[in-house]
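Convert to structure. Protein one:
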Amino acid sequence: MKVSDSIQKNRSQREFKREMRRLKDKQEIEIQKLQAEHMKRKANISINNQAELQNLRSDHDFKIRKQVQRNEEALKGIEKSLQDVKDRTEKEKTRIIKDLSQEKELRSAQHKLQIDKRRLDAQLKLDDITHEANIEAQKIQRENLAQKQSVTNDNRREISRIKSSSLRKKDYTKEKYEKETLAEENKYIKAIQKLRKRNKETLVSEDKNYQKKLQQNTRLHNKSVERLTKDQQAKRTNLKREFEKHFHKDFHKNNNTMKTLVGRKEKIYQILKEDIRAKAQREFTLKEDPFYHYIDLQPEVVNDAENKEYILKFKVPEYEAKNVKLVAQDRELRLSYDRNYKHVQNDEDGSQDTINKVESYITKIPVEDIVNSKKVSKSYEQGQLIYRIGKA
């Protein structure tokens, strides 16, 4: 009985070993199929990623060229606006100089007209004074002639009276008559001399008054001309000073505006340059990150016999660790991962470029011992996701 039991037991063990070998061979075949399928999927994904990467690089290069062209056009526009500002400044400068020259000529002509007018007024006043003096001299001459005629008539009447009286008076002697006649003639001559002296004094006095008024009017005219000349020079100096002040002010203002525009142009150029560089760096980072190209779910499995657990280590970014799932059942560890990749880029024309990618990975890992699905812990250390699975 014992022998038959031993034989039966040996037979069962041999059958169990054959079954185990068969299962192991079957498992190896499945593993090879899975590995072949995995390699095929890996090659397809790699090809797709390379094609997509090439498309992204082409699009990115095209956008960079387009952006560079836009920047060059914007720079040309800024340079054109700066040249327009310079041209407007030169035109404004020419116009101001021309207006100042015309105003100077106009003021000079007005000043010349005022001087000519005042000179004409002074000449007219001088002619009036001369005419009045001539009239007064003629009047004095007429008065002198009238007085001379009156004296002559008086003398004649007196001589006639004397003659008549001498005829009446026979007792007058010839000598007495001559004396009286001589006395009357002397008296007439003295009267004439006195009258001439008075007329001469009157003429001298009138001439002095005329000369005095003429000198006074000449001084007033000269003072007026000098004052007008000084006022014109002062106005010309003020206009020149104001023009220079406004010209320098406008010149400095235009220079400051030009410097501000140049600074803004450089700043805009730097901002666009940094923006393009940042976008390119971001795209390059996303493209060069191997995690976003291809992921290999072949974690490191360690059998910790002392703690009676399996330790599974897997390199994955920390922000993607939440998408990794582990299911432990019997002698199999099933590792799954769902990855969503989305990138949105805003272009200058307001459009958006969106890239969406959804990937799922599943890896089955056989183990020697039966595992306990309730004793699974998860942690993240030094860039690795670590699972600890207790044994049953």
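Protein two, convert as well:
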Amino acid sequence: MAPGKYLHMKIYDCFSQELSLREDIAGALPLLEDIQWCTMGAWVGLGRTRILMKKSAEPDRVDALILDWKREAPSLRADAMQVVGRIIRLGRAYQDDVSALLRPHGLSYSDFDVIATLRRCGQPYTLTPTQLQRSVLLTSGAMTACLRRLELAGLICRSTDADDGRRSTAKLTRKGQVLVEKLIARRFALAERSLADVNAKQIEALTTLLRKLDST
């Protein structure tokens, strides 16, 4: 292996828990002979480098799901579910947290997405339903119902184009603007709290990978 390449080793401790090590080490291959690690799998030595290894987390629901399917249908390629299953679970958990934040204000997750989208588009805080759909990902019917709720709550006002009666716009009211600005920092704080155990480099790597997945 050429200097500067990544060395990726999978090491199993005495409890058969898989530990992964990626280390950028010049001339890594000759150091393979120098690997020493204790029976508890706590310390790994690479030549002059000693790295404290953390044991794998306890199996979660996704692990259980995959193990069940590997037992019941061994031919299934279930590894991708390690990622997709956790994306779904984490998304639902975050959405539940945000919904709990919004509920006392009489808003659903989609309701807030609509008024937040109007606020972040800048003055005059006006968009067409079609433009909102691209951001909020609601069907046409669901968007119409959402806009009706928000209008009744006084958070937006709707108007029809004088030259084209088929074209309408939604505009954030002052009441809607105040509510968004009251809640948006708390919503971002929930996202930050959900990544409290992840460092900046890991967040950057996750962002890159998720952006790649989202573009396919």
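Strands lie at 6-12, 18-24, 36-37, 43-46, 49-52, 126-127, 156-160, 168-172. Confidence is low (pLDDT under 50) at residues 1-56.
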